[in-house]
Amino acid sequence: MLRFALATAFVVCLGGGSAEAARCGGDFNSFVANMASEAQAAGVSASVTSSAFGGMTQDGAVLAFDRRQRYTFNKSFEQYVSTRVGPGRINGGRALLQRHAALLSRIEQQFGVPRQILVAIWGLESDFGKGDMGKLPVIRTLATLAHDCRRTELFQGELLAALKIVQRGDLPLRDLIGAYAGEIGQTQFLPSSYIKYGVDFDGDGRVDLRHSAADVLASTANLLHTNGFKMGQPYGEGTANFEAMREWNRALIYRKTIGYFADRLMGQ
């Protein structure tokens, strides 16, 4: 989610006290120590920061990937959608629409986002939770990117948000695994969006976007609803709902693919 719009993502505010932002560049261990102090001033416990940062080193592969990433599409819509939406994925999505019909009805009633949009996003981001959600330790990934001076403010905010996910008990550190920009879970939320939009929809007392389909789908619906998505309205290019999906992904081709996939799920 939002991987093509990271340059415009917001920095999360965790509340509580504040500390001077850590300076990027320079000695990595000193930077991490400053981030730990900043996190503790924002309400993250010393035990969490110690566990999260203990023995940490930079991840050169993350920096290499980030520096060659352009966050743009170099394919036409027709080329892109042909690689992402095929008969197997459509049939899989239709099966999940049936399997989760009661859950999706509850989500539609509470958040006003149609089920086919949610299942389309779920399929595109992680093949409905069966595909690659990333294999990188999120804290290390974000600390590496925050230390790099190109977008340090953005990634310092994401790093603080990731620590908050652990602090509030949503995911343990061993499960805080994600992609190359720190995206987490079955619909690939950045940590700041995890904090802002995450919903405990299965009632177990925590927001689990890696393992709980209920939390994943409701949180995705909450993000879209909060940004103006309206039930019963069209969602094609040029509509208000298409614009509401900008918070999910700013790329026109990606949003058009969501709509195309959603229509195929409904037999249109």
From TrEMBL:
Among InterPro entries, the record links this protein to: Lysozyme-like_dom_sf, MltB-like, MltB_2, SLT_2
Any GO molecular function: peptidoglycan lytic transglycosylase activity
Signal peptide start-end: 1-21
This protein's name: Lytic transglycosylase
What are the UniProt keywords, alphabetically? Answer: Signal
| GO biological process annotation, one example | peptidoglycan catabolic process
Where is the Transglycosylase SLT domain positioned along the sequence? 28-236
What organism does the record attribute this protein to? Answer: Bradyrhizobium centrolobii
